Amino acid sequence: MYQRVDKDLKTDICVHDSQTQTSCKRLISFPTFAPSLSPIHSGVARKPADSSNGNILPLQSSNPPVSIIDADAEMRKNLLGFCQSAGYAVHAYGTAMEFFDHYDNDAPGCLVLDTCLPDMHGLEVQQKLNLMGLNLAIVFVSRCSKISLAVQAIKLGAVDYLPKPVNKKELLAAIAKGIAINREMSNAQAIGLEFKQRFALLSPREQEVFRHVIAGRLNKQIAFDIGVCEQTIKVHRAHLMNKLHVKTLLQLSRMADKAGML
Question: Interhelix angle for 168-199 vs 249-258, to 10°?
Fold first, then answer.
């Protein structure tokens, strides 16, 4: 066993190293580079890899991709097997830097992430993904049972925090939940983007009336503020509702919310 103290996260992190069986304590502040471990990709015909190092190539799949980051070759082998049995397209990495070098944000899915990696802590990876605005559901797996880590991971948006050794059913359930959340977020973002594009086609006056409408102001109040008659506001309001493809104020508010315009 060895113990490391994360300077940024202010918490002790326990990791089991079955190869060295040694103990040490060190501080982490910024990622350091570790020996490269070749990533495993699916969906492409390749020569079978050596299963002795845990690098098993999964079958082709049209399902959303699942990425795995775990430095333990045997654990990667198990996680790959679990995901492969459920028909997922799987990409496996031994370090965080390899993941970031190969990750395709155009194909979001789910990330199975170990908390303790050679180059970055799992929470650092999560924070970096959040800062980059990447739409990726995260399921943590860890040998560390500290509740504070699990709480922090969930607060930062993780779908679940599972202890090692990982239960197959629990892992697949968490992945399915994460992908469902990911799809919902992607759909909401697409709807919001489309709404913004339609909004850009409104006239300056219609955009002005729109802002008053979503603020909850009545037609006569808007007319007074702008300095026109109430009937003119009704006409602008009808035009903008038609151009934005909404029929009710509730629909307008919901769409504006998805577009981040409230």
Answer: 110
pLDDT in tens, 26-36: 333 433 333 33
11 has a pLDDT exceeding 60: no
Q: pLDDT band at 45, cuts 50/70/90?
A: very low
Cα separation, 132 vs 127, in Å, equals: 9
d(CA 116, CA 141): 9
CA angle 176, 49, 85 (to 5 degrees): 25
For Cα atoms 159, 106, 258, give the angle at the middle one, nearest 5 degrees.
65
Q: How many other C-beta atoms can be found within 10 angstroms of the C-beta atom of residue 102?
A: 12
Identify whether the C-beta of residue 209 lies closer than 8 Å to the C-beta of residue 236. Answer: yes
Kindly state the DSSP code that residue 94 receives in the 8-state scheme: S
- Report DSSP state, residue 52: G
Q: Is the predicted pLDDT of residue 15 greater than 50, yes or no?
A: no
Structure-token pair, residue 240? 């903008």
Beta bridge partners of 161: 140
Task: With 0.70 as the threshold, say if the pTM is over it.
Answer: no
* 98/118 Cα distance (integer angstroms): 11
Question: Which domains are assigned to the chain?
Answer: 35-189 (3.40.50.2300), 201-258 (1.10.10.10)
